[in-house]
Amino acid sequence: MAAPITKTCRISANSKNSTILNRHFPPGGAQLMRSLARRSVFRLAAAGAAAFCFATQPAAADQAVEDYVQGILDEAAPILAGADHQTMLDNIEALVDEYVDMRRIGRFVLGQYARRMSEEQEAEYYPLFHRYAKKIYRNTLSDYAGESLVVTGSVDRSERDIIVNSKIKNPEPGSSYANTVIHWRVYRSRDGDLSIVDAGADNVWLAIEQRSQFTSIIANNGGGEKGVDALIAEIKTRLEG
């Protein structure tokens, strides 16, 4: 693989990829995403969102993790090339179910409030979040229909936290995605198992955007269990839309 390219953290509300992610959030989420683009993204940057972005110091590539992600991308290629749109969406969902750790992401996006849920709330929240996040991943990945992705390098943020970069393989001349860097955040468990825990494009990350939304909803509704109830209600509304 090519040597990893490290970048300074950049979160831009004007990024074309921020627009892509906004468009693919389920009904009820787009308005909140537009609001976040004006407020929360820059608040995240000021509060230290750089901790979630690329390291600015050179780091060794992780070949095993690169191979893991490339295997997923190779599996996704015929799915994205499918002629029937609904079949493609269904197959993307199956791929997400297999490789994305929704439980870990679901806890991450709650921030400090993950420790404040009751057992009853946990039992309701995690299945709802799984459905909601899967829909977001499905709709976002479908934007690359007909394309093949290839891994270009990786950065080890820690032993368990690896960023893998990819891009469109042989993009058509004039393609709006020709220079897009598509990222995959991989978690390595103590047993060495790998899973995807976030995805993004040009430093706009799905889970980070979701965390900003979710914690704002909880905080604006009193925090604690009351705020979590409001979040659960909001997720149900978005799924019904």
TrEMBL record:
It holds the Pfam family MlaC. Coiled coil: none annotated. Gene3D superfamilies: Tgt2/MlaC (3.10.450.710). This is Toluene tolerance protein. It comes from Hyphococcus luteus.
